Amino acid sequence: METFHIIVLLLDATFRVATPLVLAALAGMFSERSGVVDIGLEGKMLGAAFAAAAVAALSGSAWVGLGAGIITSIALSMLHAYACVTHKGNQVVSGMAINIVVAGLAPTLGYAWFRMGGQTPPLSGDARFRSLTLPFAETMRDVPIVGYIYAELISGHNIIVYMAAAAVPICAWILYKTRFGLRVRAVGENPHAVDTAGITVDLLRYKALAVTGLLCGIAGSYLSTAHGAGFIRDMTAGKGYLALAALIFGKWRPVPTLFACLLFAFTDAVQARLQGVELPVVGVIPVQFIQALPYILTVLLLAGFVGKANPPKAIGEPYIKER
Amino acid sequence: MTQEKVRFGAPLKIPGWVNYALIPLVNLVAAFVLSGIVILIVGDDPLEALKVLLYGAFGYPEAIGYTLYYTTNFIFTGLAVAIAFHCGLFNIGAEGQAALGGIGVGLICLYLDGLPFWMIIPLAIIAAAVFGAAWAYIPAYLQAKRGSHIVITTIMFNFIAASLLTYLLVEVVIDPNGQSPESRRFIETTWLPYFHDFLAMPETPLNLSFIYALALSAGFYFLVWQTRWGYEIRVVGQNETAARYAGISPAKNIILAMMISGALAGFVGINEIQGVQHRLILDFTGGYGFVGIAVALMGRNHPIGIFLAALLFGALYQGGSELAFEMKSINKEMVIVIQGLIILFSGALEHMFRPKIEAAYRRIAPRRPVEAS
Amino acid sequence: MSEQAPALELRRVNKSFGPVHANRDISLSVDRGSIHGIVGENGAGKSTLMSIVYGFYEADSGEIFVKGDRCDIENPQSSIKAGIGMVHQHFMLVDTFTVLENIILGVEGGFRLADGMTAARKELIRLEKEYALEVNVDAIVGDLPVGLRQRVEILKALYRGAEILILDEPTGVLTPQEADHLFRILDTLREQGKTVILITHKLREIMAITDNVSVMRRGEMVAHLKTSETSQAALAELMVGRSVLLQVEKEPAAPKDTLVSIHGLNYLDADDVPRLKDINLDIRAGEILGIAGVSGNGQSELLEVLGGILTPTSGSIRFKDQELVGSKAFTARNLRKIGLGHVPEDRHRAGLVLSFSANECAILGYHDKPEFNKGLRLDRRAIVETCEAYIKKYDVRPPDPYLTASGFSGGNQQKLVLAREMEQNPDVLLVGQPTRGVDIGAIEFIHNQLIKMRDAGKAILVVSVEIEEVMSIADRIAVMFDGEIVGEIAASEATETRLGLMMAGVRENARNKKAAG
């Protein structure tokens, strides 16, 4: 029973860690599937985290904060589009520039506005997304196994965790079953085909990047207004890159990406538990190794040692008509 | 324009100074204007800030020493990114390669410190190069032989390098008498000489590696433009099919260029670890690897341009810390904002002003002969 | 809308790319229900013109009328709306999509794909029947052979309600049978009242299928003719602006030793598809061996294997009595050292580095020769002097060794490549598509250079998709089809019909076995 409890707790932690990864990876999926490399997920999340926390602190409403986070993230995404789609700039450089600008700008503004060493005031009450208790969670708690899982694992998360869970099927549906999704997939494979089919390549990529901004905005807001209680500098701590790795590990497809995010989040949850624990055979596994594991796995996948990842064919190349 | 030119489709040539001086300058000004707006928003005077920044970077001997010390790092990483660019590769992993270079230097200075300084210094340089190059070799090999994209692998390798450094500092080389994750101090015979050791100037971190960086810049120029090996790297970078046709192995050159790149990035370890810190610490790479991309882009992958761009970022780093000191609403993150904006304008948005500037040049330039006749 | 108005009319259309005037005052009238050919050399501006009609490029000036109504065609949407469809030279298909997905892209019929799909499927099956364009709508396009992909493109246009169908060089990638099938389809389209515009530089196709023909030369429209009232020779003359000497003047060959002897050569590509099958060929000194065939039948692979770029799977290549297969010498670099020159098929992709100056291009592949190096460094002076000598001898214009390669015209670029490979004085020279995209004056020059080299006792292999070119310069002709040599004859015995049959895979030997295809 003890192991069972530990596993449930581990999975519970996994869900919390996985939420921003799932949202950011899905965000990256729309961008990359449309042919635009996005290493700026990190910056967009950080920007959204700051805006959400700042606005939530001022307005007292987490929802208003979320709106501000989304707007900020979409604005940054549009900047990426402006550089890479309109001006055919280098997509990697643009993403990195956004990451760096935000990493500087968020604490700079935070310092100027709140005078708290670059942080935002701690959020409480309605300024933060609180855990929701699902119906019957408490009454079911005593039902063996199922009830416990329901009460501990399924219930008791904040709304954004459930949004992330819902985002996977919704994004999959959009990508595979709608006109927009068909066009996004097409433009990432062969923008010339899309152009000659009478669809404006640039506008389509702008739209895809707007979706990226939206999802990244939710992911970032989660960090500062749901998972945490306020903005701290560098609070994304590489989650944007980790989401990117998950996206690649999931071969740019929604459901495998979800599992990649869960795997990476699980290693994170396990790492906290394994700290200093002596395991049979291997002994103590260094924390740093577990931290690096997602990146090592992604490299192995990319190298074709673990399956094969085929990126969208037109990814990274600005669309220029021939001549 | 003559009829001949029209037939051959050669557009009116834009002279070098437009391309290499005017356009980067315009991009830079745009970044500074936007930075000024940010400073206005946080409630300070941008012009005053610029003054403080310039004074802080160049205003007195000590400032210049600090500026050049930062410049040294940017020359290393700028050259590192540039050699990869010449081979058509985007090395976003200079940060991780620099970390490994530092580990190499640290291990030499910690474990071979019985050797005399004239052996330690070359050994440390070799270790920095070997460690940095080895760290770049893996992504290069995976790109050349297994087709995995170098941008993604080098990003991943940055994180892996950071974990590796942390592991070493926490578990292996940690100073048993200390609390924080860092090694013991190196003994003084392993230190790189400071400039103030043999020049009449105030104490600054500026050390011999600055001279080394300048020498490497010259070597870079020689290698890329004056030798058949540089020629091969450039052919691969510009046209892989042509390289294969001409019997130039893309795989070999990708690996070669990346290893040179990694070695160059690794030299940040010489300046930081052996030159200034004198112990192995966390995060000594301080984003130099990422800014190296901006340095290479602004410097148009040429050592002279790279030196100027490195000087700019060096000044920004040094002047920026002065700025955080002097101005009430500005903290050290402001420098990161300016950096990011420079990368944005001179890298991602480099095509924004170019067509307008070129068109303006075309409008003005051809008139001259007409007026003359 | 008038009943008599032509399906498509252009008035004084102009288009420039920077300083290049690609289309100059073009006027054109295409009758309804006709097949209208547009011929011209490569680079004459045909594709640009049709891209303007399709809205891919916007014209600088001029007017377009569809069925008598003036149309502002700014983008593909407006041209699709006007009933114009285009099959591009390079197919505009998403390889990972099914045929159905490709066809509905842009006209999905609602936000939910499922809404439009069923109707689209029904409509497609109807179209396939009506125009004899059978193709499985659920197949992944990337898995289909080129001929079928082209059908998908045609279906795509018809599905969008195209009344006017433009085909840009549609037969370049097709075997003769596939081309015949395509022409039957075009015939059906005409019978159903559609208007077809066929862009090509192959005069035979114009004569075979079109009702009217317009000729373009250097960005201008130079003639509009009824096909029945003209001839290939007349069209050829209009295309190039003067009578063409199709036959190069040359003495009969005096072949000597066999310098390259190929036996049982096989090559499988990365996907294990056989690209070369049991090739046997001899290349002799003092002779030009021509390889004819529709492009994509293994000629490129043959050149790249012989040039040391690809490694053959099996077989033997003897080069001046030295076995190459399996030896250290068998790399592009080492082959140059033992006397093999190689003018690649595609000078932009392989022969030059377009961003390099002419002088740096002049040493590509020979950059490690002692004459270009001084110790560690490249000998810049020697390189520039060599380049200047090439420029002078081959009349490259403009004569500037510092100009970037992209600044030269196609013909001059080709001369630069030829100079580099010929002036190293190789014993064996491989030449791929010697005159592709080269202006007429340069063609003659290049042909004469090749003959001169032959007369100097060198062994030359020329691969060309231009049947006339092979016939005029080669002494012996081998024809490739589907990775095999289907026949080898003396140039003096070659006729277009004979070669044409072989190019379609029909063997001439006793059993007259027909190759698969």
Automatic annotation (TrEMBL), chain A:
The keyword Cell membrane applies. It is found in: Cell membrane. It is a multi-pass membrane protein. GO terms for cellular component: plasma membrane. Its main location: membrane. It comes from the Bacteria. The chain crosses the membrane at residues 6-27, 92-114, 159-176, 285-306. InterPro entries: ABC_transp_permease. Keywords: Cell membrane, Membrane, Transmembrane, Transmembrane helix. One of its GO terms (molecular function) is transmembrane transporter activity. PANTHER family: GUANOSINE ABC TRANSPORTER PERMEASE PROTEIN NUPQ, SUGAR ABC TRANSPORTER INTEGRAL MEMBRANE PROTEIN-RELATED. This is ABC transporter permease. It comes from Sneathiella chungangensis.
TrEMBL record, chain B:
InterPro entries: ABC_transp_permease. The keyword Transmembrane helix applies. The chain crosses the membrane at residues 21-43, 63-85, 92-111, 117-138, 150-170, 206-224, 254-274, 280-297, 304-320, 335-353. It is found in: Cell membrane. Keywords: Cell membrane, Membrane, Transmembrane, Transmembrane helix. One of its GO terms (molecular function) is transmembrane transporter activity. One of its GO terms (cellular component) is plasma membrane. Pfam families: BPD_transp_2 (PF02653). It is a multi-pass membrane protein. Its main location: membrane. PANTHER family: ABC TRANSPORTER, PERMEASE PROTEIN (PTHR47089), GUANOSINE ABC TRANSPORTER PERMEASE PROTEIN NUPP (PTHR47089:SF1). This is ABC transporter permease. The lineage of its organism: Bacteria, Pseudomonadati, Pseudomonadota, Alphaproteobacteria, Sneathiellales.
TrEMBL record, chain C:
Coiled coil: none annotated. Residues 8-243, 260-507 form the ABC transporter domain. SUPFAM superfamilies: P-loop containing nucleoside triphosphate hydrolases. One of its GO terms (cellular component) is plasma membrane. Keywords: ATP-binding, Cell membrane, Membrane, Nucleotide-binding, Repeat, Sugar transport, Translocase, Transport. Transmembrane segments: none annotated. It is found in: Cell membrane. Pfam families: ABC_tran (PF00005). InterPro entries: AAA+_ATPase (IPR003593), ABC_carbohydrate_import_ATPase (IPR050107), ABC_transporter-like_ATP-bd (IPR003439), ABC_transporter-like_CS (IPR017871), P-loop_NTPase (IPR027417). It is a peripheral membrane protein. GO terms for molecular function: ATP binding; ATP hydrolysis activity. This is ATP-binding cassette domain-containing protein.
